[in-house]
Amino acid sequence: MANFDFTVADDVDVNTTTFEDNDLLPTRIKTIVIRQHADNDAVLNDWTKIIAGAELQSGILSVTIGPSDISATSMTFNIDPNTMGFIADGSSRTYTLKVWLKNPVDPSIADAIDNKDPFSRCLLQT
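Below the sequence we write its predicted structure tokens.
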């Protein structure tokens, strides 16, 4: 099940008449970090107690991470800038995030997280 998706576009707001602000180069992303927003629900403030792993997909390409790439407040995806992180000049790429929970979830918060969305307020950093 997908938790959310986002799109990264190259040359956003380029003037389509004069092409001002068009660098004529692709965007190449090596790292995508998804961070909690400061207003995240306090029950969900430590992702290491909740999330076992995550997958970032774009088309047929994907990167899977485990506990070592998930901190209390962020998750880090290292992606290949020549494939999954490559966005051709003037185009865009959509990424989809999927996560799975620990089994069992930390017993001290298991009941409290029921029906909560840990990604309702996140920040994206590339």
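The chain has a mean pLDDT of 83.
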